[in-house]
Amino acid sequence: MRRKLLFGNWKMNKTQAESKEFAKESIELRKFALANDIDIGVAPVYLSLETVRKANPDLIVAAQNCHFADHGAFTGEISIPMLLELGVNWVIIGHSERRSYYAETNESCNKKLLALEANKMTPIYCVGETLEQFEAGKTKEVIKAQTLEGLNGLGKEFVSNMVIAYEPVWSIGTGKNASKEIAEDICGYIRELVHELYGDAADKVRILYGGSVKPENVHDYLTQPNVDGALVGGASLKVDSFRQLIENMIK
Length: 251
Ligand code: PEP
Prior knowledge:
With 251 residues, the chain is an alpha/beta fold. The protein is 46% helix and 16% strand. The protein contains twelve helices and eight strands. It has helices at 16-35, 49-55, 80-85, 96-101, 106-118, 131-135, 139-151, 156-161, 180-198, 201-204, 218-222, 239-250; strands at residues 4-9, 38-43, 60-63, 90-93, 122-127, 163-166, 206-210, 229-232. An eight-stranded parallel beta barrel has the order 1-2-3-4-5-6-7-8, surrounded by six helices. The chain binds phosphoenolpyruvate. Phosphoenolpyruvate (PEP) binds at residues 9, 11, 167, 172-173, 210-213, 231-235.
């Protein structure tokens, strides 16, 4: 049985002080989630990773990105050994904002995923089509390329333990969440692709839906057999809303 997962992507929000406050307030929340077989985590900005980890060591903490090289002339980047030094071993890879604003490609995501595998870390690999691609009926074509090219060369064990997030770009931060049927169709399709490549790793890999998930709609997604949880932006920023997301995942 796959454990449910709720993950907050804070993007470029929250100072260290605000991040610390959330982390402290989430200590009880995490116990509550755990008692209900739900894993919870957040992805703060780099500057707050250590702050959050120390304030609530039981919360899963992810970086929002990393470089594939260990060190070098890459101004403004952060490497995997630097994250490991802070005790951070989860990283979001290929978020649509990174793909569209910072020219991330399936190939660059693949290099990062291979580097994370070499360091025994856990990725949340994001895939999703744009509105134009959705309207042109190209969703599965796009998802297939992102999945196959992103996962190229990864080992079965790593894939079994990774997380893939289906986040249609048209639903991120827009208030237009995909229907539960669309989420199930595409999360199921991703699982099929993983099955073709890695056999029973497909039964273990956790696949999340993300895109305007709110306390009011989170439960719908969790009723779907191939949706193992949610990656949430806006609704993960306030601890009360995060609590409601967990409560509604359980219902
Ligand atoms: C995200 O940033 O991954 C996301 C899904 O954002 P939002 O929940 O705000 O749409």
